[in-house]
């Protein structure tokens, strides 16, 4: 990744993966165009969270950058949590004010340029240009591209830099300075500053005489070498004999001093052991390498409470060691011991329960997992979706700009999205909002609708639709024709769904209130079905910190069982001649994503995965731990907060063909899928009134499933519920139980 880009705000990213993933994340800090946040981190759920993430929440409110662990190659500026917690949260406010002016100026100057988004105020653009932000034709595509390109080319001024510029950045970064001229010097200073942030944190260098670990020494030597390389590439070698040395002459004293300092630091109390900076990280000497805490130390920490600063440092050390275990693990402890400590530390530092922290640590390599946890401490940018039933994006943008809103197009991948950077008015209460010109909608939540691609005149089912962000988008994509059945099992939530449908002027929507497992019995024959499934919400922790602590293994089992039932109903609701189902969740856990889709494919051999039409994000997993998934699962898409600066999200598109007589192999696969689902299935009822879990215990019509297992589960759940509420048990029987 280009180093410059790190300092600029990432828009929700049109980034192709896996390249983006490898680039260690796109969520970047402190650019001038820091986006308006959708929601501040909420109060963490548990006691641990209170100590851990509450303070982190504050810190992050002032600094949008997820501080990646050093092993991610970034060497995060590890501001001590407590110190940072007291950082003034309004520090950026003044900057934002300036930003607003800058952004407006950007649009103005683009007006003069006369293409793309810049036509906003001019009003004299030709029809083609005026259509640029409408849905539809290829030329529109080009127009939108041009608009974005114009903005992208403003990268330096606007402070916005998209991920796909990073490659050229990386190449260009070192060629910035013409040696000797002022510009060059400035660039060099900037580079050096960047080095500080990217590499060794000069603000937080250990005090002189501090004893450094071998690994720290090694890092510093490597950093020194890198700086030397950089200087050389600028024609400013450290060696004053070399050409160009003169220009460096002035600074050389300082630098020599600096080097002395470095050396003193490197030497610590013991004196330098290798001037050449050779590899001495093996830890044979001195035994001053990182050591995992002993059992006694862990017990003491458990009793006294952990010092967050210590825990944070330890997380970084462990992540670095796990990244190069053979070389860096010098205390004879096993990898699993390191993982165990990391799990403990993640729980106490970020405030997750052990179950979820463990699941998430399994999802990513350790360094990336920390990036994910960090990203969950900062809100995602506010995004809105233009309601094309009422207005055009350019008109909406102009209207909001006139109200003092700073915004820009979301990215090439969306013709209707806008990212809001700053607003002097509440974005959920403008006249345009009330008039239904836009929906406040997370960028990820556009994706399933894009994937479903409903056509005008079609019959569409949105199975779990409240509060209607996707329903209203589907309606707009269908240009208010055909029909969208917008269903949700939660009656209270259908009220906000209905309100949104009205506000946005969706005339082709019918709201229904069923447990979606009642489909296709109540209604079937759909061209397309969206199942935006109830889920654990592990992709939206930045919006709801309670997810960190309120999910247990049992909740997950209940959810996945429900999800599997729902996806079969979605498939069965497609018309006989075939159609499409999009399955999506805002969870990143494979149990709720690939595993559910895989189950459905095995149970319904007339289905196959097809491309989502969303060309960014990571591919779905083909396997995860001991599980193997459908060979086309790579067509599914995953997006993450730490790689795309959007809510974590999963989507898969399934083509449903007319039913065929299942082959023996298909039957065997379906049976196997059932068995595996049974082993995953919940053994006990949910205790909470958790919205997502509720339907599992109150299934309206389980006769859809001639599944004894289901019937028994529901029956025993009801018995237990009766018992808990003091009702005589056995007095009632569900339809399913009766049928069974
Ligand atoms: C992820 S939210 C849907 C968000 C919605 N698609 C949107 O874009 O605004 C999941 C929804 O599923 C609903 N739900 C949970 N269990 C359900 C069930 N068995 N049948 C139908 N809806 C259900 C919840 O009430 C919740 O509104």
Characterization of the model:
The protein is α/β, with parallel strands linked by helices. Among the domains are: 35-75 and 291-375, no CATH class; 99-164, no CATH class; 389-442, Alpha-Beta Plaits, CATH 3.30.70; 444-682, Vaccinia Virus protein VP39 (Rossmann fold, 3-Layer(aba) Sandwich). Strands 5, 6, 7, 8, 9, 10, 11, 14 and 15 form a nine-stranded mixed β-sheet that branches. Strands 2-3-1-4 form a four-stranded antiparallel β-sheet. A two-stranded antiparallel sheet has the order 12-13. Helix 2 packs across helix 15 (335-350) and helix 24 (594-603) packs antiparallel against helix 26 (664-680). 46% of the residues are buried. Residues 1-11, 13-35, 37-210, 237-287, 681-710 and 730-740 have low confidence and may be disordered. Bound molecules: S-adenosylmethionine (SAM). S-adenosylmethionine binds at residues 445, 463-470, 487-490, 493, 515-517, 532, 534, 691-692, 695. The site of S-adenosylmethionine (SAM) has 22 residues, from helix 21. Residues 121-144, 154-169, 179-201, 239-278, 675-693 have a biased composition (Acidic residues). S-adenosyl-L-methionine binds at residues 464-470, 488, 515, 532. One of its GO terms (molecular function) is rRNA (cytosine-C5-)-methyltransferase activity. It is found in: Nucleus, Nucleolus.
């Amino acid at each position: 990744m280009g180093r410059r880009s790190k300092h600029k705000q990432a828009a929700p990213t049109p980034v192709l993966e896996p390249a983006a993933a490898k680039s260690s994340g796109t969520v970047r800090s402190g650019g001038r165009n820091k986006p308006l946040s959708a929601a501040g981190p909420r109060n963490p759920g548990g006691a641990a969270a209170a100590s851990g993430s509450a303070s982190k929440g504050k810190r992050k409110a002032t600094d949008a950058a997820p501080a990646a662990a050093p092993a991610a190659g970034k060497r995060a500026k590890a501001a001590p949590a407590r110190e940072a917690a007291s950082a003034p949260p309004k520090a950026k406010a003044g900057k934002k004010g300036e930003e607003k002016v800058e952004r407006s100026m950007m649009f103005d100057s683009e007006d003069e340029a006369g293409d793309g988004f810049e036509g906003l105020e001019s009003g004299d653009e030709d029809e083609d240009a005026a259509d640029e932000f409408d849905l539809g034709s290829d030329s529109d595509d080009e127009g939108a591209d041009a608009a974005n390109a114009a903005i992208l080319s403003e990268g330096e001024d606007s402070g916005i830099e998209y991920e796909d510029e990073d490659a050229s950045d990386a190449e260009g970064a070192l060629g910035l300075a013409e040696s000797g001229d002022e510009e060059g010097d400035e660039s060099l200073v900037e580079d050096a500053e960047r080095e500080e942030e990217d590499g060794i944190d000069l603000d937080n260098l250990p005090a002189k005489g501090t004893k450094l670990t071998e690994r720290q020494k090694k890092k510093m030597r490597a950093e020194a070498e890198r700086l030397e390389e950089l200087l050389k590439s600028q024609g400013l070698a450290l060696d004053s004999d070399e050409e160009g040395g003169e220009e460096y002459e002035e600074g050389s004293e300082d630098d020599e001093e600096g080097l002395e300092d470095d050396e003193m630091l490197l030497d610590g109390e013991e004196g330098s052991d290798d001037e050449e900076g050779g590899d001495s990280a093996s830890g044979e000497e001195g035994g001053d390498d990182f050591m995992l805490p002993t059992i006694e130390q862990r017990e003491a920490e458990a009793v006294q409470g952990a010092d967050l600063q210590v825990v944070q440092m330890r997380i970084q050390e462990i992540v670095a060691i796990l990244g190069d275990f053979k070389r860096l693990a010098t205390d004879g402890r096993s990898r699993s011991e390191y993982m165990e400590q990391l799990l403990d530390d993640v729980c106490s530092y970020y405030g997750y329960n052990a179950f979820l922290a463990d699941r998430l640590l399994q999802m990513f390599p350790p360094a990336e997992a920390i990036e994910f946890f960090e990203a969950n401490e900062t809100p995602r940018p506010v995004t809105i979706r233009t309601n094309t039933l009422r207005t055009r994006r350019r008109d909406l943008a102009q209207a909001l700009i006139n109200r003092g809103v700073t915004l820009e197009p979301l990215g090439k991948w969306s013709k209707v999205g806008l990212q809001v950077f700053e607003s002097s008015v509440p974005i959920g209460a403008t006249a345009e909002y009330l008039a239904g010109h836009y929906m406040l909608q997370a960028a990820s939540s556009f994706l399933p609708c894009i994937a479903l691609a409903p056509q005008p005149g079609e019959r569409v089912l949105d199975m779990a639709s409240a509060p209607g962000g996707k329903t209203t988008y589907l309606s707009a994509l269908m240009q208010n024709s055909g029909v969208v059945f917008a269903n949700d099992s939660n009656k209270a939530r259908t009220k906000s769904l209905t309100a949104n449908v009205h506000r946005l002027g969706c005339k082709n929507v019918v709201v229904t209130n069923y447990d979606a497992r009642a489909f296709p019995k109540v209604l079937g024959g759909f061209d397309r079905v969206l199942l935006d499934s109830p889920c654990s919400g592990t992709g939206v922790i930045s919006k709801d910190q309670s997810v960190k602590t309120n999910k247990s293994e049992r909740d997950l089992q209940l959810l996945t069982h429900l999800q599997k039932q729902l996806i079969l109903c979605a498939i069965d609701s497609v018309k006989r001649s075939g159609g499409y189902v999009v399955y999506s969740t805002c969870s990143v856990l494979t149990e709720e994503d690939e595993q559910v889709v895989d189950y459905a494919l095995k149970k319904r051999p007339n289905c196959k995965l097809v491309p989502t039409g969303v060309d960014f994000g990571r591919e779905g997993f083909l396997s995860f731990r001991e599980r193997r998934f459908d060979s086309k699962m790579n067509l599914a898409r995953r997006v993450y907060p730490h790689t795309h600066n959007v809510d974590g999200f999963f989507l898969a598109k399934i083509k449903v063909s007319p039913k065929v007589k299942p082959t023996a192999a298909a039957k065997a696969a379906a049976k196997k899928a059932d068995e595996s689902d049974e082993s995953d299935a919940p053994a006990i009822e949910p205790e909470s009134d958790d919205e997502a879990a509720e339907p599992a215990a109150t299934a309206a019509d389980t006769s859809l499933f001639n599944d004894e297992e289901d019937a028994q589960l529901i029956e025993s759940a009801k018995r237990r519920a009766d018992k808990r509420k003091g009702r005589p048990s056995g007095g009632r029987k569900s339809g399913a139980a009766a049928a069974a």
